[in-house]
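YwbE family protein (Desulfonatronum thiosulfatophilum), 69 aa
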Amino acid sequence: MDGTVRADIVRGSEVAVVMKKDQRTGVLTRGRVKDILTKSSNHSRGIKVRLESGEVGRVKEILSAGSAS
């Protein structure tokens, strides 16, 4: 799944995000979702999230579903 629909992403999901500094190269960073930052129901470039590591980026791929908490 791509990360353009907010409803598909829950806290604890394992995702691949592209951070602002990596937008030109497209380098993906993997991590677990701590917070969902985008308020709208969808976003064409990906839902913005904060990972448990503290890094912020836009979801490009949902790797596994997390627990809804």
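The two ends are 21 Å apart (CA to CA). The beta strands are 14-19, 29-36, 48-51, 56-64. ok done for today
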